[in-house]
Write the structure tokens for this entry.
Amino acid sequence: MPMDVNANIPSNFIRNIIEQDLSTGKHKKIVTRFPPEPNGYLHIGHAKSICLNFGLARDYQGTCHLRFDDTNPEKEEVEYIESIQEDVRWLGFDWGEHLYFASDYFDQLYHYAVELIKQGKAYVCELSGDEIREYRGTLTQPGKDSPYRNRSVEENLELFERMRNGEFEEGSHVLRAKIDMASPNVVMRDPVLYRIKKVPHHRTGDKWCIYPMYDFTHCLSDAIEGITHSICTLEFENNRPLYEWILEQVFPEPHPQQIEFARLNLSYTVMSKRKLLQLVEQGVVSGWDDPRMPTLAGLRRRGFTPAAIRDFCERIGVAKANSIVDYALLEHCLREDLNMTAKRTMAVLRPLKVVIENYPEGQVEYVEAVNNPNDPDAGTRLVPFAREIFIERDDFMVDPPKKFFRLAPGREVRLRFAYFIKCTDVIYDDEGNVVELRAVYDPETKGGSAPDGRKVKATLHWVAAEHSLPAEVRLYDHLFAKEDPNEGDLLENLNPASLEILTDARVEVNMQDVQPGEKFQFERLGYFCVDLDSTPERLVFNRTVPLRDTWAKLQRK
Ligand code: ATP
Ligand code: MG
């Protein structure tokens, strides 16, 4: 049955495992989970994991849990818990009633730790952190047993309880699994299971002063929730034997199966929460939702759509080998979506005034403009045209080179949806800068074609001077200039031109009532969206992405 449902979804090794498990009857229903640690905002890498886990549950009629992996009270905040839920929902996924917190299992986890001690498979160790590392050995050298390794079960039970009761200082005691200090896998050399942290937890308050480590928490949380396929990134491959070891000691079968896939890396950005936090804390960006951030909040503010991000995650697929995905592919997916959905409008980012001398003073007429050529239902709108208009400064040159076909002295061009105009004069300021153009229009060319069949080589966008609105436009580019900003110093790799703010832009008068988040194609310029800072008194737009699709171009080569 799942095979039919998924007939047009490309397969991958994880789907193969799941289909096999369903067909052999190993599982009747699959249960996956997305397990973020609430220590930062979600980023596009998390989106890959969300689309994968929730997507599998959707495609195979299973369930996907949202579980906060909240075992480190020092770095975790309620703000993150809220933003993560908002972002998962925004991406289009729903965990229903399956919202969990690892901290909800603290009592059970403690019980499992006691169980391990009783089996003689865990002990309280008094080596310091540095000593534990030293004793652990290296990839080429086996470790050494801790002097505390052979304590009796009774002594360990008592010490662990005293740890729990707050009788010891942080760092003085830890609970360790007793596995094998000579294991070729360093992870298996008596890993720490619990440490003392005299820090209140945002959910359990002061109840605990010992907290379980990730490796101990994760496998048991998965098992408690009945997760069937625990999908994680490749760094955890070495931890899989520990994941399985812990469950084998204390948890009845069936156990969840850990499956690793390659994390998403994207060019010109970083994906480590520690680095993203650094950018926020040092004020390099305006916040977690700065439109240059690879966070979902940042991408949303920039104008990305959930559909584009889901499409991107689908296209990159899942693999077993790490690689860096070209940022241009993400932008390509976005353009494909916005091209179908975004309304067209005209905006002039760097205005140059043109006075059409043969157009009657005080007259305004309305020309009809198509809202979206890809969507017949989007209809048309009326755009005011008058004697004084603005065109883009870049669309005029006094002395144009051969391949410049736009406006120049004596040359005729088309104004989109309106008339042909011909530049008759150029007005300069005292320093020789062009400040205004004079032109004449041909009333016969209304709608953009000449009855005598003469052609023009360029069509310019424009807005009427008086009948347009002022706007601020923020032009964003990659936050980092280097393809892999993780090479070398993070801050030195920043792109100094990642934000340019234009304060004199003009937009069509019918943009008066736009709302933050609304998306448009500014004709000839790119896709833009209304920023959160925008008000009817002061419109603010973010450039989401320019029109030129470097990825599609590469594919055609
Ligand atoms: P960091 O190492 O920056 O703290 P993390 O991977 O620890 O990030 P978590 O909150 O633990 O962040 O991640 C939640 C889930 O998202 C995990 O299952 C993790 O494997 C997955 N994930 C995180 N980053 C990526 C990525 N770049 N690509 C795919 N999945 C990711
Ligand atoms: Mg993590």
Summary: Residues 35-37, 45-46, 48-49, 69, 232-233, 263-264, 271-273 surround adenosine-5'-triphosphate (ligand 1) (CB under 6 Å). The first strand starts at residue 31 and ends at 34. Confidence is low (pLDDT under 50) at residues 1-7. The chain is about 25% helix and 25% strand.
